[in-house]
Amino acid sequence: MTRLPVRPVLIGAAALVLVAGTVTLISRSQQTSKPDTAPQSAAQPRKLEAVSALGRLEPAGDIRKLAAPITGIGGSPRITRLLVEEGQRVQEGQLLATFDTGPALQAQRRLLQSRIANLSDQVTLLGREISRYRQLAKAGATPAADLESRELTLVELKGNLREAQDELVKTEADLVNTELRAPFSGTVLKLQSRVGERPGDDGILELGASDQMEVLAEVYESDINRLRLGQRATITSENGGFSGSLNGRVIRISPQVRQRDVLSTDPTGDADARIVEVRLALEPADIARVRTRAGLKTVIRFEP
Prior knowledge:
By secondary structure, the chain is an alpha+beta fold.
């Protein structure tokens, strides 16, 4: 058997190893320098979440607490009739309640009217009599003292008549306060007193001019910079006070930060949160749906 020379074999093996290494390095170099053809996804802008807030429905006009008049001794009269209920629509000047001071003042008015009529008759008759006595006194048929006495009596009667007339004016003014009438057209929002009670500091009732309704939203102070005037919003009832949703737009952003007033039904809600009041006007078609829902809790979702 013939042995192959060792040196040529080693040289050939080394050459093969060198060629294989060169090919590997070239292949890796090409892979490294080859541009990444995989599409890189473009960075997507972060979508802002809509601002949500709790709120309530309120009349867009006045809300007034109507109180009872103060009597002469400094207290409130007792309510004898209450002619409206919560949620009832009333017109300006409509009678809402009456008080127990009415009957006595009405009797006093009738008495004064009778007294004024009597004094007026006496003044008229005495005036005619004085005219006759003047003629008689000129003719010397009666003493001048008789004429003077009657003239003094006439002056006194006229004074009594003026006093009675002034007292009647005062009584008529007091009678106005024996009734409570609506100062404007609106809706009775809340009754604070009932028949037989003497109204306290809360008055008799709350009246709202609810021909127009608004939504008062309490927005967290951290979200207020994301709102603007004219921004649209969707309003729903927190507890099902009305069906569906309402459409509104921001008409006022309060410049004041204060503590939260409208509380959520969620017991874990932050009652001490700092909020900014934002008012929204409702669409005319939606106002009719919630005209009698003043004070109803709502959830407001502002469009981004």
